[in-house]
Amino acid sequence: MTRRALAATALGATAVACCALLLTAAGAPSALGPPTALGGKCGVFPEPGTEIGSAGGSLPDLRAFNQPISSAKVAPDSDEVIAHIDAHGGGDLHPDFGSPRAYGIPYRVVGKRAKRVRVRFTAYGSESDHGAYRIPLDAPVEGGARSDGDRHVIVYDRARCRLYELYRAFPRPPGERWDADSGVIWDLTSAATRRDGWTSADAAGLPIFPGLVRYDEVRRGRVEHAIRITFESTRDAWIHPATHCAGDSADPAAPAMGTRLRLRADYDISSISGEA
């Protein structure tokens, strides 16, 4: 799939504070207002469990989104990977959240009254989930209704503990359906990944929603999960829990899909405080 590459990023406590403040500085809370709270008891994929410490390697399933890695060993090729990122657009961090609306990825929260809607897949149907999508036809689209970009649509179903994600999605009100290149129905209570080689609404085969920074998290003052970012250049490979790749490089120093990063413990964030 020729889509923008993704690397899911896990950050330590200091990095989380930094990124939360970056979101606030972007003006998202004041410009957009608070979205509907998630509510319910579904959470956003399982926690790692107390037996998993912060010094181990990245988990190969979706618990990795909630896994602390503050004490994990640094990969031997870390310097080379960071150098590659810096040399290929590394000055432009792209975390897919914030203001204006055209930049961030929006989402909708639905409950038990949400109705089923048909989704017709137009490109990657063989790797998509065919089932009961409950996506309102007026759900927000990444980039806006007239966007010609990735057009992700994300719906969090707090009544059924499901997450619906579409890529290149177009509402078709006359037919009461959505047209989309691909789509996934994620079980929020399961840590299971996609099949190896299968895409999702994201080129890495990962869910998008658990890696976004949400208004309710910023308001609470804590972001306790990995943050999704994208790079200009990636290796044509993946690291679990990613299951798919669309890289443009065979360079072993290029980050693979699913690469995990964190800020150095000595990174100075003392100058970052409060709302901009």
Oligomer state of the chains in this structure: single chain
Rg (C-alpha, Å): 18 Å
Inertia-based shape: globular
- Physical arrangement of strands within the biggest beta sheet: 2-4-5-8
User: Strand content of the residues, in percent?
Assistant: 5-15%
Q: How confident is the prediction overall: mean pLDDT?
A: 83
- Our measurement of the CA-to-CA distance between the termini, rounded to an integer number of angstroms, reads 38 Å
Helix-strand category: alpha/beta
How does this structure look, described?
The chain has 276 residues and is an alpha/beta fold. The longest helix is centred in the N-terminal third of the chain and has 13 residues. It has one domain. It starts with a strand and ends in a 45-residue tail after the last strand.
Structure summarized in a few sentences:
With 276 residues, this protein is of the alpha/beta class.
